[in-house]
Amino acid sequence: MLAMNYPPKINEINELLPQTQCGQCGFKGCLPYAEAIAEGRADINQCPPGGEQGIADLAALLGRPSKPLDTRYGSHKPAQVAVIIEQDCIGCVKCIDACPVDAIIGAAKLMHTVIAHECTGCSLCVAPCPVDCIVMQTLPETGISRDKKQQSAWAKHRYEVKNTRKAQFEAEKMQRARLKKAQLASKNLATGI
Predict the structure, then answer these.
(1) Is position 146 within any domain?
(2) For residue range 27-78, what is the model confidence (pLDDT) as tens digits?
(3) How far apart are CA 159 and CA 167, in angstroms?
(4) Are residues 68 and 86 in the same domain?
């Protein structure tokens, strides 16, 4: 995903989205939603994490009137973070696989934990957990102003890196399977099977 180029309008729309990759908008992440907006297949008010400010920003970019959030897609909530109840974690790694931005660390059969400042609050890790040890908690007001644009850009980068790594892993897995198949065919040919 890192090397792909998209039309400028899609990139501009994507830059305004919160990059939570939560799918609440009805699309599998912020980029597919940005593409749908640019192509007229989706409206600008389908992103609960972006809230009214996100809708206003999209409206300004696209020269459209702003509108309220479409509640069919959810409601805007204060910033949240996933928290793993560590004593209940069985180390199944399902949450790690579900996290779109690699904000969860741990290993199989060992306790996992969330890197809170990397978590986008998408809650995609909650449902796959077989022991319900993940809860979403509202981030406390710290008085420290967080740059949402910088946070979104960092989350987007982490999402793209994870997807690139997953694609590379799948390509290597397919290459190993082809090599093994070729070796078996060669072995069978040599032995006359």
Answers:
(1) no
(2) 999 999 999 999 999 999 999 999 999 999 999 999 999 999 999 999 999 9
(3) 12
(4) no
Q: Is 109 part of any domain?
A: yes
Are residues 112 and 64 part of one domain? no
What is the pLDDT at residue 4?
A: 58
Q: In this structure, which amino acid lies at residue 135?
A: V
Closest residue by Cα to residue 53 from 37, 36, 66, 65: 66
What tokens does 151 get?
């946070």
- Dihedral of the alpha carbons of 80, 84, 85, 89, in degrees to the nearest 10: 160
Provide the residue range defining the domain that includes 14: 8-73
- The pLDDT mean for the chain works out to 91
Tokens 């939560």, located at residue: 22
- Dist CA 122 CA 109 (whole Å): 24
Cα distances (Å, whole numbers) of residue 32 to 21, 56, 175 = 10, 20, 28
What amino acid is encoded at 54 in this protein? G
Q: How many domains does the chain have?
A: 2
Residues 86 and 50 reside in one and the same domain:
no
Distances (CA, A) of 37 to 2, 15, 30, 41, 163: 21, 13, 10, 6, 22
Q: How confident is the model at residue 176 (pLDDT cuts 50, 70, 90)?
A: very high
Q: Which helix (H) or strand (E) holds 57?
A: helix 51-62
